[in-house]
UniProtKB/TrEMBL annotation:
Name of the molecule in the record: non-specific serine/threonine protein kinase
Entry-linked Pfam families: Pkinase
Protein kinase domain location: 24-310
Keyword terms: ATP-binding, Kinase, Nucleotide-binding, Transferase
Region of interest (Disordered), residue spans: 231-262
UniProt source species: Hyalangium minutum
Enzyme nomenclature, EC number: 2.7.11.1
C-alpha cells in the first residue's frame, strides 16, 4: 500500500524536473496536447548527445502511441522527427506509454510568421518541406489526418519546417481506435467530402470516414491560405455561414490575392488548387505532384518574391508586421544559432577527449599450451564456486526482488529500468544526506555560477536542481538526495564527468 501512495505523489500530467524515466532524465517542459505531454530530456550517461523530446501519454494504455511509433519508424523525411525509443512508464494509476523523439527547438508556423515578415520565397520553401513530409507519409500507406499550422514547427536555428504530432495518423491495416464517424482531427481543416460523409452516415452505428491523401492536401491548403493571408477561408462545416462555397460545383474560397495583393498569381493558383471542392482537383490526390509544382515555383522565383509578404505597421493588425518586433525576432534567432554553434563545438571537443581517454584494446594471443592451462584453471574455479552457490543464489534472489519494486519497461527489448523521480546526478551515499538542511559550503565538484543549465538555480553561491514539486521532508521516494531550503527540496548540480558525493561539505 505504501508503494502506491508514494508513486501517486508524481502526477503523470506534470512530471518534476530531474525525474528519470528509464534512461531518460527530464530537464525541461515542451508542451501539452490533447493526448500527450512533451518533455525535454537527456540520456543519463550520454548527456553530450544533446536533448531529446519525450512524449508521455495523458491517458494510460493509449494505443495511439503504438501507432504513432509505427509511423515515425517508417516515414523517412528530413521534416519528420526521428524516433529513438519507445516504452511504458509504470504508475499506480496505470501504464503510460511514451516515445522519445528528436528534439525540435522551434515555433508553431503561424506564431513564427506573426513575429516575422517572410518573403514569398521563404513561404514556398516552408510549404515545400511540409509537402515532402506529407509525401513521405503517403508513401508508406499512411495519412496524417491532422495537418495544420499548429502541428508544423519551424526550427529557429536553421528555419526548417517539421510536421509534428502523428498521434491522429493512420496507416493501411491499422485498427480503428474510435467509434465516431469522423476520425480525429481539427474541424477547421476538414475537407468538404468529410463533412458530406458525416451528414450521410451521422446515425450509422459502424460507419467510419476513410481519410485519404486528398484530405491531407486540403488541410495543407488551409494552412497555406492562413499563412499568406492571416485569415482562414470560410468553414467547410455545412452548418456554418459561408459554407456554400464548398458545395459541389461551388466557387471555393476567395483567392488569397484578394486579401493580400502581395501573393503572386502562381502561389495563389497553387493554394486554390489545394482547396478545390472536388478531391480529384487537388493534384489528383498525389502529394508528389504538389512537391513537383512547389519545386518548379522555387526554381523560377524572381526578385519580386524576395519582398516582404506583409506590410509594415506599429499596430498588430491582420497582414501587417511590426518592424521592431521582426528585428527582435531576428536578433533572437541569431543568438540561438550562435549558442547552438558553441554547444556543438563543446560536444565535439568533449567527444574527442573521451575517445583519446579510452584505453587501447589488447589482443590476446593464445597458444595450445596456454589454452590447456586456462581450461584446467577454469575447472578448478568451477569446483570452488560450487561450494558457495547456495549463498550466492539467496543473495541474487533478494537483489532481484528489490530491483523489481519500481520499474519502467522500455521498448525494443531494453529491459526494466528504474523510473523513480531520481535526482539530476546519482549520489554516492544518499542515506547520509536524507533530510539535511542546505549546507553553507559547496560540495566537491559542484557547479558554480553562472547556473545556465536548463532548470538550474543559484543558491548560496552554488548551482542546484529544484526537485520539481518536492516539499520537506526531503526523504520520500524520489527525493533521496534532497536538501531542505526555504520550504523546498534541492539537489546539487555537478560538473559532467565528476563523481558526486552526498556527504555534507
Amino acid at each position: 500500500m505504501g508503494k502506491k501512495v508514494a508513486s501517486l505523489d508524481v502526477d503523470p500530467l506534470s512530471l518534476p524536473l530531474g525525474m528519470r524515466m528509464g534512461p531518460w532524465r527530464i530537464v525541461g517542459w515542451g508542451g501539452r496536447g490533447a493526448y500527450g505531454t512533451v518533455y525535454r530530456v537527456e540520456r543519463v550517461g550520454h548527456e553530450l548527445e544533446g536533448p531529446f523530446a519525450l512524449k508521455l501519454a495523458v491517458f494510460p494504455e493509449d494505443e495511439r502511441f503504438e501507432r504513432e511509433a509505427w509511423l515515425l519508424r517508417h516515414i523517412q523525411s528530413a521534416s519528420v522527427p526521428h524516433l529513438y525509443a519507445q516504452g511504458v512508464w509504470e504508475h499506480a494509476s496505470g501504464r503510460y506509454r511514451y516515445l522519445v523523439m528528436q528534439w525540435v527547438e522551434g515555433e508553431p508556423l503561424y506564431e513564427w510568421s506573426a513575429r516575422r515578415n517572410p518573403t514569398e520565397s521563404r513561404v514556398v520553401e516552408l510549404l515545400l518541406q511540409v509537402a515532402k513530409a506529407v509525401e513521405a507519409t503517403h508513401a508508406v500507406g499512411a495519412v496524417h489526418r491532422d495537418v495544420k499550422g499548429g502541428n508544423v514547427l519551424v526550427r529557429l536555428t536553421d528555419g526548417r519546417a517539421f510536421l509534428m504530432d502523428f498521434g491522429a495518423g493512420h496507416y493501411r491495416g491499422a485498427a480503428t481506435l474510435t467509434s465516431k464517424v469522423l476520425p480525429p482531427g481539427t474541424p477547421a481543416y476538414r475537407s468538404p467530402e468529410a463533412w458530406g460523409f458525416l451528414r450521410l452516415f451521422l446515425r450509422h452505428p459502424t460507419a467510419h470516414y476513410p481519410a485519404s491523401a486528398s484530405d491531407d492536401l486540403f488541410a495543407l491548403g488551409i494552412t497555406a491560405y492562413r499563412l499568406v493571408t492571416d485569415e482562414y477561408p470560410p468553414s467547410t462545416d455545412p452548418q456554418a455561414p459561408g459554407a456554400e462555397v464548398w458545395r459541389e460545383g461551388g466557387p471555393g474560397p476567395r483567392p488569397p490575392r484578394e486579401l493580400n495583393p502581395r501573393v503572386s498569381p502562381e502561389l495563389d493558383a497553387l493554394i486554390l488548387r489545394l482547396l478545390a471542392p472536388a478531391p480529384v482537383d487537388r493534384f489528383n490526390g498525389r502529394a508528389q505532384e504538389l512537391v513537383a509544382a512547389l519545386e518548379e515555383m522555387k526554381e523560377r522565383a524572381g526578385p519580386e518574391r524576395n519582398e516582404p509578404l506583409f506590410g509594415w505597421s506599429h499596430a498588430h493588425d491582420t497582414r501587417w508586421r511590426s518592424l521592431g518586433g521582426v528585428r527582435l525576432a531576428e536578433e533572437r534567432d541569431a543568438a540561438r544559432r550562435e549558442r547552438e554553434k558553441r554547444e556543438l563545438e563543446v560536444r565535439a571537443r568533449a567527444e574527442a577527449a573521451n575517445r583519446l581517454a579510452e584505453p587501447p584494446r589488447s589482443v590476446a594471443v593464445w597458444s595450445v599450451e596456454g589454452g590447456i592451462a586456462a581450461m584446467g584453471l577454469l575447472l578448478t574455479c568451477l569446483l570452488v564456486t560450487g561450494l558457495y552457490r547456495g549463498q550466492q543464489e539467496a543473495q541474487t534472489a533478494s537483489a532481484k526482488e528489490h530491483r523489481q519494486r519500481d520499474t519502467a519497461a522500455v521498448g525494443d527489448g531494453a529491459g526494466a529500468i528504474s523510473a523513480s523521480a531520481d535526482a539530476s546526478v546519482p549520489a554516492g551515499n544518499a542515506k547520509s544526506a536524507v533530510g539535511l538542511p542546505l549546507p553553507e559550503k559547496l560540495f566537491p565538484g559542484q557547479r558554480k555560477p553562472p547556473c545556465n543549465r536548463f532548470g538550474e538555480v543559484e543558491v548560496r553561491g552554488g548551482c542546484w536542481w529544484l526537485l520539481g514539486a518536492g516539499k520537506p521532508p526531503c526523504k520520500e521516494k524520489g527525493k533521496e538526495d534532497g536538501y531542505e531550503w526555504k520550504g523546498a527540496c534541492y539537489t546539487p548540480s555537478y560538473q559532467m564527468g565528476r563523481e558526486p558525493t552526498s556527504k555534507p561539505p
